[in-house]
Amino acid sequence: MEEKLTLCEEKMEKSVENLYNEYSAIRAGRANPHVLDKISVDYYGTASSIQQVANVSVPEARMIQIQPWEASLIKEIEKAILCSDLGLTPTNDGKSIRLVFPELTEERRKELAKDVKKKGENAKVAVRNIRRDANDSFKKSNKSGEVSEDELKQLEDRIQKLTDKYVAEIDKAVDEKTKEIMTV
Asked: What's this model's pTM, rounded to 2 decimal places?
């Protein structure tokens, strides 16, 4: 049963990590190269992330500069950014692409805060589903005689403590990201 608990904890940890990855792609007024993580370009028939085909830097607080290693990729990268949900228009000078992040309006900040909360709720649901699956598994083990009633209760308590720990971590992440968005 210990390995089941360890597996559940790993799954919960991955849910939280996934949330942090999603949050890194949400722009909060400042230029963050991670907003480009989900954008891929066609590089000789292979879908590649922008970071794999170009040098990405942040020369100013609200600007990302992308310098492709091959000049032929400029149009591809520009097209990929325009087709993405970033809402930014790239500026192309022939050698590099600049993305300028406008100041966020109050309305946009509230929208982003709602999105942060929604992603946090989804992560909590994932953690709770892991708890439910674990409890179901423990109950099956109890019915088949592998664990006693007392052991079942202990396992359920331990999985609940894990769930509480990760839900608290998710709440903390939601609060921090919301604060970051609202106070930029």
From this structure: 0.70
